[in-house]
């Protein structure tokens, strides 16, 4: 069986599990494991259809904790409670309050693909993000929030113009041709964390430039589509209008 056939079989099984869980339990929880670069997350599917309540997504906690906090939310909703964005709630994490923010639909394709499939491949459903604080009870938008935890929990109610997990002023590598008008067709996320954005597969390093990552996303907003590339991965496309393709690190294990 080819990798494409394996993906098709897995996809069909996942979709059937979603339908079965919603029929039996009222919702399905999709759990995605963390990578070396991205945090794990979980989200609900079915709450809006069954209970007219926004779906919920949460990032960065251990997977068993992610499941527990979302199941707690689902139990409250099934019992008739309506959770409200911007209100702090106890009872989800021992000793800490959480709150919900409204997710911008521009992020839906990036994080809740099976959710959009379930809702007829649309983004016409509300989605809340469950946000948790650091150990000092500071939320991510507060100045005193633990900066070491910033990448664990992207905030999906803002910054739709910049979807990368790094700071906007991160230095990245490109060449002068990109700023002369040639499309960026090759992107590399090096194993050491550096990013490269090139117009050709073999760029002329004599034309190399170091620019802020934000400048790249302003030059071509579609670069945001490959924000998720893990360490050692690369992406490519045939033209500026083409869809991105990508592969993970293919180096041989020692």
SSE diagram, text form:
Layout: H1 3-25, E1 28-32, E2 41-45, H2 47-51, E3 55-59, H3 63-78, E4 89-93, E5 96-102, H4 108-111, H5 113-118, E6 127-131, E7 171-175, H6 176-179, E8 186-189, E9 195-198, E10 208-212, H7 213-219, E11 233-236, E12 245-247
Parallel strand pairs: 3-6
Antiparallel strand pairs: 1-2, 2-3, 4-5, 5-6, 7-10, 8-9, 8-11, 11-12
How is this structure best summarized?
This protein folds into 2 domains: 3-152, no CATH class; 171-247, no CATH class. It is 26% helix and 22% strand.
Describe, in plain words, how this protein is organized in 3D.
This protein has 254 residues and is of the alpha+beta class. The chain has 2 domains: 3-152, no CATH class; 171-247, no CATH class. It is built from 7 helices and 12 strands. It has helices spanning 3-25, 47-51, 63-78, 108-111, 113-118, 176-179, 213-219, and strands at residues 28-32, 41-45, 55-59, 89-93, 96-102, 127-131, 171-175, 186-189, 195-198, 208-212, 233-236, 245-247. The longest helix has 23 residues, at 3-25. The model has no long low-confidence stretch (mean pLDDT 94).
What is the number of strand segments? Answer: 12
Provide mean pLDDT, rounded: 94
Q: What does the oligomeric state look like here?
A: single chain
Q: What class would the helix/strand composition place it in?
A: alpha+beta
Largest sheet data: 6 strands, mixed
Distance between the termini: 27 Å
């Amino acid at each position: 069986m080819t990798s494409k056939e394996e993906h098709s079989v897995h996809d069909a099984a996942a979709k059937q599990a979603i339908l079965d869980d919603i029929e039996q339990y009222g919702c399905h929880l999709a759990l995605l494991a963390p990578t070396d670069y991205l945090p794990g997350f979980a989200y609900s599917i079915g709450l809006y259809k069954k209970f007219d309540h926004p779906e919920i997504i949460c990032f960065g906690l251990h997977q068993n904790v992610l499941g527990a906090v979302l199941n707690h939310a689902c139990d409250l909703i099934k019992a008739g409670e309506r959770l409200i964005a911007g209100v702090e709630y106890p009872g989800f994490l021992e000793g800490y309050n959480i709150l919900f923010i409204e997710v911008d639909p521009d992020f839906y394709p990036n994080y809740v693909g099976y959710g959009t499939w379930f809702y007829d491949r649309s983004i016409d459903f509300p989605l809340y993000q469950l946000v948790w604080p650091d150990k000092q009870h500071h939320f991510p938008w507060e100045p005193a929030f633990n900066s070491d935890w910033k990448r664990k929990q992207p905030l999906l109610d803002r910054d739709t113009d910049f979807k990368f997990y790094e700071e906007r002023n991160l230095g990245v590598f490109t060449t002068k041709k990109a700023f002369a008008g040639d499309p960026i067709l090759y992107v590399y996320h090096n194993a050491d964390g550096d990013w490269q954005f090139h117009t050709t597969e073999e760029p002329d390093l004599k034309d190399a430039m170091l620019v802020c990552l934000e400048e790249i996303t302003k030059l071509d907003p579609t670069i945001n589509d490959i924000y998720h590339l893990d360490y050692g991965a690369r992406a490519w496309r045939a033209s500026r209008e083409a869809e991105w393709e990508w592969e993970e690190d293919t180096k041989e294990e020692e």
